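Q: What changes when flavin-adenine dinucleotide is included in the input?
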Amino acid sequence: MQAKDISEADVVVVGAGNAALCAAMAAHEAGAKVIVLERAPQSEAGGNSFFTAGATRFVFNNIAELREVLDVSEEEERTVDFGVYTADNFFDDMGRVTQYRCDPDLTEVLVSNSRPTLAWMKKKGVKFEPMYGRQAHKVNGRFKFFGGQVCAFWGGGAGLVESEHRIAKTLGIPIVYETAAVSLVQEAGRVVGVVVESGGLQSTIRAKAVVLAAGGFESNAEMRARYLGPNWDLAKVRGTRFNMGDGINMAMRAGAMPCGHWSGAHAVGWDMNAPTFGDREVGDGFQKHSYPFSIMVNADGERFVDEGADFRNFTYAKYGLDVLKQPGLFSWQVYDAKVTPLLRDEYRIRQVTKVEADTLEALAEKMEGVNPKGFLRTVKAFNAAVRQDIPFNSVVKDGRCTEGLAVPKSNWANTLDTPPYQAYAVTCGITFTFGGVKVSPQAAVQSVAGQPIPGLFAAGEMVGGLFYFNYPSGTGLVSGAVFGRIAGTQAARHAGGL
Ligand SMILES: Cc1cc2nc3c(=O)[nH]c(=O)nc-3n(C[C@H](O)[C@H](O)[C@H](O)COP(=O)(O)OP(=O)(O)OC[C@H]3O[C@@H](n4cnc5c(N)ncnc54)[C@H](O)[C@@H]3O)c2cc1C
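A: The predicted holo structure follows.
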């Protein structure tokens, strides 16, 4: 189907990532005739959602609640420590990492709908799997999960997108590719359609309601420099090249209130030689997230963050910014042989910027761009500062810290003394931007005057007010699902005049 063949729908959904597809499924379930518009070609479908590991965070107080989402076998129940993740844990994590700026009403919606929404997706045919590889380590022969996150969408982001698109097809929801929404059509303030561009031609699709789920502005170098600041135009983009801020800009032109942390973004340590935008074959493999077991040094050979401040789930999304602030915009993560068995799968991909040596001196010479003397000075001081009387334990915050350093390491501090040594070079990779538009708990886009713009709903990265400074891992997909489902349901109700 092409844009020129469509003149109207009850609900038009803009974007075909996870938030959009959840909105489309929910609107269809509520009885609306839905169409989905996607700027990318079909070969690049799925937006940022495609590039994810599919990791997801939700509330479960016991194994029965976990089973509403994840199929846990009886043997797993006996042999694996999944822990629990309470609503209080989720609130605490959101509050702590966002410096208590996250919108309390939206956070309440996210937390309380997290499990029911994923269970709803499961009923639709989306599957889940435990994240043994990345979120659990074996302790005394038994897997123990850490960081409040135990499962992922089956097959990662690619599997999720494939499932959602298959479900949409089964339900008869058309997805129209290479069709960009350009602007919203308004009559007497109500949103009554979308102007689209496809193959260089513009046309109008009339709709009773529109759900915008077109991502943030992370792919747009100009907007990154304008809103995030100097050098953000030089960051690598971890995912899609199509999230250019279109949805946010369209909504603001229709009177939406900008909201949230417009100068903030989710950004991580990402292979220094990764391509400008995400690579669909490599997915999230360019990230390097075992740094809590490393020391990270800059061009001067100096450490610049507390690598062990918390589980990586609660620091990785802000450390990209710290790397961006370093001279040359890069850093090397350094490991010795005591901890290399703990390195995540992404350290073993072919496209990796890695050096290895049997002595620290030889390693220093191989780490391109790093002052060797500065590095060796740093290691000497670091090794002397490690509290070796405290035992190392990777699955809890072990308190094995350094003492007396200007930049401390609070957990998992180990001396670097066992060859072979390995080092991995990273730069800043942006994931998504935090600024967006204001929505109500019903996902209705709010005007500057604080009123809903009739007929306009938003979900996913475009929602402002949830994330500030930082982000708890595995929250993007569930947030897109929660607000997407609500937006789709509300849009269908609006379209039906309810
Ligand atoms: C490498 C990577 C790993 C990640 N890992 C995880 C993870 O494990 N767990 C997690 O929870 N989150 C993860 N995230 C974050 C997660 O991807 C996002 O939070 C989430 O996917 C956003 O969903 P969305 O539907 O809002 O946006 P997207 O999935 O990006 O969808 C937006 C869609 O809108 C389309 N679009 C843009 N402009 C227009 C227009 N004008 N007209 C029509 N269509 C348009 C885009 O092409 C795109 O398909 C990761 C992100 C990346 C990049």
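Observations recorded in class: The first helix runs from residue 18 to 29.
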